[in-house]
Design goal:
It is a single chain. With 222 residues, this protein is α/β, with parallel strands linked by helices. The chain has a single domain, classed as P-loop containing nucleotide triphosphate hydrolases (Rossmann fold). It is built from 8 helices and 5 strands. The protein binds thymidine-5'-diphosphate. The site of thymidine-5'-diphosphate (TYD) has 15 residues, from helix 1 and helix 4.
Length: 222
Amino acid sequence: MSTLPRRAPFITFEGGEGAGKTTQTRLLANRLTAAGIACLLTREPGGAPFAEEIRALLLRTDLPPRSAMAEALLFLAARADHVAETIMPALDAGKWVISDRFADSTFAYQGAAGGVPPAMLTELHRLVLGDFRPDLTLILDLPPEIGLARAGARLQGVHTTDGFESRALAYHEALRQGFRAIAANDPERCVLIDASGSTDDVAAQIWAVIETRYRVRWADGP
Ligand code: TYD
């Protein structure tokens, strides 16, 4: 058995709208830092200068309709840049990398909910990123009615919502099932987290996974 050099873990957070990914990625990064672990927090779409330009294009609401395949290719273009410019250099420098969304979002949004066949997305991923994948993916799962209500509350007063959040409930249900299927098909990499509880409750579930997998102890933790 060959021993590969052990590099720092690449951890991704996934889930539908209003699942609390952004809050939870920040909490985890803070906790790791408190445990003396160097980590980089990043996000998709975006996470590198050119990828952020593609993000701005993808989140515009004033553009003509586009196919789910066209979207998938743009998300993948942004991902190629994000991996090359941000994720790999940080992992090479020994930092843990935590990303708010990554490749599973393409499988759930453009695949399960958008209709692009998963085999095509798998092939595209392989062509662009080879076998690069997260070491651990935390999928924040909750009923779409709850997630959309939370996301709606967050956006109140902003007078705008991006095109992804404003889609019909059935779309968000397909999305949830897509994420759940990803978790079921890849149980070694993915852990399904019940995101319906409080922020503290969800953070505790996540920390329990991190402690078990990586034997990390938080100095002031429970
Ligand atoms: P963002 O404002 O970052 O939303 P969130 O807080 O939910 O992550 O917008 C990103 C949107 O892009 C989000 O609705 C999910 C969508 N998305 C895809 O459709 N495919 C992808 O591959 C990725 C990474 C994101």
